[in-house]
From TrEMBL:
InterPro entries: Glutathione-S-Trfase_C-like, Glutathione-S-Trfase_C_sf, Glutathione_S-Trfase, Glutathione_S-Trfase_N, GST_C, Thioredoxin-like_sf. One of its GO terms (biological process) is glutathione metabolic process. GO terms for cellular component: cytoplasm. Residues 1-81 form the GST N-terminal domain. GO terms for molecular function: glutathione binding; glutathione transferase activity. This is glutathione transferase. It comes from the Bacteria. The lineage of its organism: Bacteria, Pseudomonadati, Myxococcota, Polyangia, Polyangiales. Keywords: Transferase.
Length: 220
């Protein structure tokens, strides 16, 4: 099994976190987005026609899109399931994965792109393939949207330990890399100002899987 990606990539980190939770080793084949390799290498574009990372290769089977990959791995590999068996908790997990994609990761990225971590990106050969930093009105709108998303999380986590309910699930996994980068980019107040979110973040970020996987650009 191979993962084509980059450890510092948020989407690659989702996949690596699930692999670590499952205690399964896969070969990480680096595709360096800072060098524009995801957009320019013919062999990678043959794996991912849209020129993104990560891509999973499993015995000749290729799969791209991180949310699809983590669902596949959770079913494919032995170990504790990261998908709730209870129908309603499963539905809530899917709701949170969908809302992360629709309402959370986009504005979080706008905030991250305005912060110091992305200086590494802007000074890299691959910078031409990244969206530019948001202007001030866009940044203010992004911060409002991020705050609203965290308010929704706070209400949910005030009555349960994890996003989908009583157990750690793929819903938590999909949010973790973005929050890690947000904190590293000076947005830690979004988490620390909300007690239930802060307690949840302490729980999930202290998991052995995340300690193994979580890595921000420019940090050792």
């Amino acid at each position: 099994m191979k993962i084509y990606g980059m450890q510092e990539s948020t989407c690659t980190q989702k996949v690596l976190t699930v692999l670590a939770e499952k205690e399964h080793e896969a070969e990480l084949v680096e595709v360096n987005v800072l060098m524009g390799e995801d957009k320019t290498l013919p062999e990678h574009l043959a794996r991912h026609p849209f020129g993104e990372i990560p891509v999973l290769e499993d015995d000749g089977f290729l799969l791209y899109e991180s949310r699809a990959i983590i669902r596949y791995l959770d079913q494919r590999l032995p170990g504790r399931s990261l998908t709730p068996r209870d129908l309603r908790e499963w539905a809530l997990m899917e709701q949170w994965i969908s809302s992360e994609q629709s309402y959370f990761s986009g504005p979080v990225y706008d905030v991250i792109r305005s912060g110091p971590v992305y200086n590494i990106v802007w000074n890299s050969p691959g910078a031409v393939y990244f969206p530019p930093p948001p202007d001030e009105p866009m940044l203010q709108k992004a911060r409002q949207d991020v705050g609203k998303a965290f308010d929704v999380m706070e209400r949910t986590l005030s009555s349960q330990p994890y996003l989908a309910g009583a157990t750690f699930s793929l819903a938590d996994v999909t949010h973790m890399p973005y929050i890690s980068y947000l904190i590293a980019s000076g947005g830690g107040d979004f988490v620390s100002s909300r007690p239930s979110v802060a307690a949840w973040w302490e729980r999930v970020s202290s998991r052995p899987s995340w300690r193994k996987v979580g890595k921000v650009l420019g940090q050792a």
